[in-house]
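Researcher: Structure for this, please.
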Amino acid sequence: MIPLLFVAFGVFLAGCAPLSRPGQGPPPDVDLTPAPVVARATPPAPAVAPPPSPVAAPVPVVPPETWLDLGAWAATNQVGRLTVLTAGNGRNPPQFSFATPRGQWVLQADSELSRWEGLEIRLGFPPQARNGALWLHRLDVEKNLLPLLAEPWTPTNGARRLIVIDPGHGGGDSGTRSALPGRLEKDYTLDWALRLRPLLEARGWQVVLTRTNDADVSLPARVAIAEAAGADVFVSLHFNAANGSGHAGVETYCLTPSGMPSNLARSYEDNAALTFPNNRFDTANLQLAVRLHRELLATAGGPDRGVRRARFMTVLRGQNRPAVLLEAGYLSNPAEAERIHQPEYRQRLAEAVARGVGAVIRED
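Model: Predicted structure, token format:
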């Protein structure tokens, strides 16, 4: 490379040498008439290749087998690493940790209880331990694990974001009764919704309430309100109750995916073969539920009763948008009933929901 530079430099000097020495005229054969100026065509600008389109991460392939060796499947798809936390014994099944780029999932054989980043999520089928490996049902991989690994869902309406907030019960349907005399669930849910509306509006959301007073609104009518509004998201607000006063904590529900048993059925038939309109949003439902559940727990500070699936909830089944139902504490528990009765606490619940909605929708 260096010799070529010297040669080029020599050529350059030769081209720039004077045609005559000082004090001499030009050689007789040199024509001093200015040469005509020839316009040179401007060379076309080089074509600039467009920037490459972002390449989405490959979606892990879920084989058709009913049960999957989670560790082997994760290694094949490069989505995480499974390790044994406790080997288990005759009384206690083994526990496993599944570490992924998005978080850690702790699972226990023979139990539907699992924890994602410390948050309880109920599985559809208890995992199975076989020869030191953990086997997970294919539907739990598709409907629980993959949504947790996926990019957050975002509305398709661009700058327009509309959410329907559903204060549970109303009118002749009082909901559950509080351990405090004369206090009803329907009044607390309405107050919660009215506190939530301006918080969401301040974040740029259009907000529609299914009721703004003590009115009867049927469950199908609540679905129809969201449909008529063209809502992007639906959130139903409730408080819980149980026989006795021992139950406490927060539960969050989304619709059970087709083929999977529900975590809660009550006295209703739980036909796993059924598919509802809202099942098109199974992934977004779980993402929204996890975010809202985490924010409510941070506010309530009570027991984590988990993100759960239910199929009987009419207000969720017909939704053509991500939809969840929140149970923000037990009115049958005297301590929780007293806390729910405080306006400051309901304001904090409203702030928690506003934060949770903003987190999963990725507000800009």
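Researcher: Any notable elements?
Model: Residues 1-43, 45-55 have pLDDT under 50 and may be disordered. The chain is about 30% helix and 20% strand.
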